[in-house]
Amino acid sequence: VYNAAPAWGITVGDALGVPDPVLTQHLHLHQGQTFSFLGIRVSSPLSLVVNGKRPPGSALAPPRLALSNPSASPQ
């Protein structure tokens, strides 16, 4: 589950409700092999329903800022 906190998750046997899912067909070619699979995206793990309940706010991963500057010289 994207954007889920590392300490939160679902387990085998949990009932999972996915409101407003976005289904996407992924097709990737790598070293002459084709990989095709379906992906389901939701806006946030907080929009899921697990075992009849919404996840707590702590289920959402905190934001992280990653910066890069490809034109900077290595030190």
TrEMBL record:
Coiled coil: none annotated. Residues 54-75 are annotated as: Disordered. Transmembrane segments: none annotated. InterPro entries: TTC5_OB, TTC5_OB_sf. Residues 1-61 form the Tetratricopeptide repeat protein 5 OB fold domain. It comes from the Eukaryota. This is TTC5 protein. It comes from Donacobius atricapilla.
